[in-house]
Amino acid sequence: MKKLSSILLVLSLFLTGCSTSLPLTDAGEAPKKSIKIGVSIYDEYDTFIADTVAYLKEWSVEKEKETGTVITLDIVSAGGSQLTQNDQIERFADRGYDAVCVNLVDRTDATVIIDKARNADMPIVFFNRELVEEDLERWDKLYYVGAIAQQSGEMQGQIVVDACDERFSEIDINRDGILQYVMLEGEAGHQDALVRTQSSVSTVTEAGYEVEKLGDEIANWNRAQAKTKMNMLLERYANQIEVVFANDDDMALGALEALEESHVTHIPMIVGVNGIPEVLDAIKAKHIEGTVYNDGRGQAQAILEMSYALAMGEPFPDQITLTGEKYVYLPYKIITYNNVQQYISNQ
After folding, report:
1. What is the helix (H) or strand (E) element at residue 73, kind and residue range?
2. Phi and psi for 148 in degrees, rounded to 5?
3. What are the percentages of helix, strand and coil residues in the chain, rounded to 5?
């Protein structure tokens, strides 16, 4: 009996030692060995979003190596349908996902998603398409990762200003002292599109340059649509357009294709936003004046780190800097011929 008691005592001490050797979460529970994170994007054909998702996958692999926790990413596209996206979030909730990342289809219609996630106690990190502030305040497990839209428009305008300061006589092809421009907008009612459209032009006028808008078309962040819309503009304003403002790089490339296939005698200055690889190459070849770098890699890292922390019940890591306790904004950067090679080298 004494021998058996001694064995039981040793076993008890061993088990107790094992149970206290594991680190605990804030909730006092042992950390999870695996987590499931759902990712719903508005449209898989958006180049910037596709690149961001690719970076998200890369960061999840790095996080697995760092922590030893298995991370399952379930990535789905809503195909431009908010109803489809609502159903996707419901499926994530029904399957007990630990967190979700949402690139909203309709930034003004997040109520259903938030309600489904809140009922399932499933935190959300929204990204890229900023939801209405009042919606983000509805629950303490809602966050947003992106960039400040006004900054992108101001930088896009600054690219034009800097080019005009250097060679206005070359850009002003009709020698009237006025910049004739067309605008390719991303999406009707989309906050980034509205803000970029306004702030890009106002930056040029505030710098002292007079402008004249020849046309303004919606191309839905889509290269093919932008090409079609640019062809329409060229039918009306051939050889009159001096600047093409495109709300993103896909549309800038669509405009470039239309111009190169047309019979215009002068290719106008084209500026975009995002810094996707094909546009970087076009800037190096001097076919596009410049773009505004949107840090998809950095945003993906923030999305993954925040989702992981929320899923594990841990505080956000030190590199996550919150604005207003809800937002993570990464800065935009100007890319022109002068610095494009460093961005190409970092791809």
Report:
1. strand 70-77
2. -85, 115
3. 50, 20, 35
Question: For residues 100 and 24, which has the higher predicted lDDT (pLDDT)?
Answer: 100
269-271 and 243-246 beta bridge pairing: parallel
pLDDT confidence of residue 190: 84
Amino acid of residue 136? L
147-177: pLDDT as tens digits? 999 999 999 999 999 999 999 999 999 999 9
Q: Write the DSSP string, 261-297.
A: HS--SSPPEEE-SB--HHHHHHHHTTSS-EEEE--HH
Which two three-digit tokens encode residue 145?
A: 């990762």
3-class state of residue 127 by DSSP: strand
Residue 181 phi/psi, 5° resolution?
Answer: -135, 160
Q: Cβ distance 40 to 89 under 8 Å?
A: yes
pLDDT given at position 15? 31
- pTM tops 0.85, yes or no: yes
Q: Is 209 in a helix, a strand, or coil? A: coil
Helix or strand holding residue 195 (H, E): helix 191-206
Residue 267: which residues within 8 A CB-CB, separation 6 or more? 256, 259, 260, 287
